[in-house]
Amino acid sequence: MRKELTVFLLSGILASCGTSQTKSTSGQNQSKVINMNKKEIVGTFLGAVAKQDTATMREIANADYIQHNPFVPTGLEPFIGMLPILKENGTYAENVRMFEDGNYVFMHNIWKNAKPFGAEEMVAFDIIRVDENGKVAEHWDAMTTLVKETVSGRTQTDGPTTVEDRDKTDANKALAVALIEDVLMGKNPGNITAYISAEQYDQHNPQIKDGLSGIGEAVAYLTSQNNMFKYTKIHKVLGEGNFVLTVSEGEWSGKSQVFYDLFRMKGGKIVEHWDVIQEIPTAGLAHANGMFGF
C-alpha cells in the first residue's frame, strides 16, 4: 500500500512533464531561474523529475519542499528517494492546461499507467507554489478516475486551452467565488443565471449534461437521494484570464471532500466547467500539512 501511495504522489508531481516549457538542465540553473517565469521554473523542475536529475531538482526546489498530498512525506529528499518507484511502474502524466497566478502555477493533467490508484488513467489538478527566490516550494493536488463514457459526450479534459482576457482575471475570479457562495453554498441558489450562461455551458463532469438544464437535472436527482454536494469553505482561488480554478472543502456521500473546479468565462458569464472531487483521508497520513494550507 505504501508503494502505491508513493506512486500516487510521483504521478501527480510530474503533471506537466510533457509541456513545451520543460528544459534540460545542468550546472547553470541558478542563472536560468532568474530569467524564467513561474511556468518555466515549474517545467524545468518537472523535467528534472522525469529524467531523475536529482542535481537539478536540488537546485530548483527548496530542501523543505512542502507536500500536501496526504500520503507522502513532506520534504525534497524523501521525494527524491521515491523516484525509482516512478520508473518501475512506468507511471507518467500528460499536461493538458497550465496557468499562472502570482507565485502559483496550476495544471490540468491526465495520468497514464495509473493502476496503483485503481484505474489505468486518472484526471488531476496540480498546484505548485514558486517562492520569492524562484524555487519550487509547495505542492497540492487532487485526482479522480478517468471516465470513458460521459453523459454530455465530452471528456473530463477536452475543450479550449488558450488564455484570453487577462485584463479580466480579477473579475472572473470574483464571478467564480460568487457562484460558489450563492449557489453551491446555498445562499441564493435561484441566482444561478447571474453566473452561468443560458446560451452555452459546456460540462465536463462525467455525470452531468451540458447547459443549465443539465445542472437542474443533476441537482434534482442528488437532492432526491439526499446526497447533494455541500460546499462549506473556499480555500483558494487562482486565475489567469478567462480560466479560474477554485479549491473548496465540503461534503458528499457522507464524507469530507476536496472540490477542485475549473471554470472558463466569456462575456461575464461561466461557459465551461471541469472538476475533480476527492475524498479527504483521515488515516494513514504521512504528514500534518493537510490538503489545503494555502
**H-E string:** HHHHEHHEEEEHEHEEEE
Shape: globular
- Count, helices: 8
The proportion of residues forming helix, as a percent range, comes to 25-40%
Number of strands: 10
- Terminal Cα separation, in Å? 28 Å
Strands of the largest sheet, in order across it? Answer: 1-5-4-3-2
Q: Radius of gyration from the CA trace? A: 19 Å
CATH class of the largest domain: Alpha Beta
Broad structural category: alpha+beta
Oligomer: single chain
CATH topology of the largest domain: Nuclear Transport Factor 2, Chain: A
CATH architecture of the largest domain: Roll
Strand content bin: 25-35%
Any overview of this molecule?
This protein has two domains: 2-145, Nuclear Transport Factor 2, Chain: A (Roll), CATH 3.10.450; 166-279, Nuclear Transport Factor 2, Chain: A. 28% of the residues lie in helices and 31% in strands. The chain contains eight helices and ten strands. It is globular.
Quick overview:
With 294 residues, this protein is of the alpha+beta class. Helix content is 28%, strand content 31%.
